[in-house]
Amino acid sequence: MVQKICFVTIGATASFDQLLQAVLSGEFFQALEALKYTHLLLQYGKNGKKFLEELGNINQHGIEISGFDFNTKGLGQEMWSTKAAKDRAEGVVVSHAGSGSILDALRIRVPLIVVPNTSLLHNHQVELAEELSKQGYLVHGHVDDLSSALRESEAHRKKLQAWPPNSHGADPSGRGLAGVMDEEMGFYD
Questions:
Q1: What three-state secondary structure class fits 68?
Q2: Phi, psi at residue 134, to the nearest 5°?
Q3: Is the Cβ–Cβ distance between 128 and 141 less than 8 Å?
């Protein structure tokens, strides 16, 4: 059976319980099932494990659910797991609107739904999500209607804009966020 993975990241620094509740809702599982997703992988942060435990069953609507709190090596492997391969259909990344996570997903060129955490103080996430959505790089999602964003991302994958290419030919992705930021700022080795 061909896998299709939805990877969700809430970030490492702030809890985003509303996003976890939205992706673990019956409505979201129905949307995943309708779009032929087979796996839901959650990076749920320091307090999110309780949501998986409350769900109980690790299989909802035929979708296998797994998760972890934090990966000290970054989320590159999990994001890459959403890319198409011989045994996988292309999936999607659902992310909080932190700039590091957005840049990582854009570099990998996977369909991306960005959901701003509107409860944060001095929140820049809404503006970032709106602008990148307007430019065609991602889908701006909302916790109160994430199923619609998932359906929109399926259509969006056909017109996904490539993140601006490297201007000097080197691939900073092996250096993680630092490499991406160096590239974007014009710092070269």
A1: strand
A2: -60, -35
A3: no
Distances (CA, A) of 103 to 59, 108, 116, 137, 180: 31, 9, 15, 11, 7
Q: Tens of pLDDT along 157-182? A: 777 777 764 455 555 455 566 666 66
Q: Which residues pair with 93 in a beta bridge?
A: 7, 112
DSSP 114: E
- State the chain's maximal CA–CA distance in angstroms: 49
* Burial class of residue 108 (count of CB atoms within 10 Å of its CB; 0-12, 13-18, 19+): middle
Q: What are phi and psi of 93, to 5 degrees?
A: -110, 130
Secondary structure of 6-48 as H, E, C letters: EEEECCCCCCCHHHHHHHCCHHHHHHHHHCCCCEEEEECCCCC
pTM to 2 decimals? 0.83
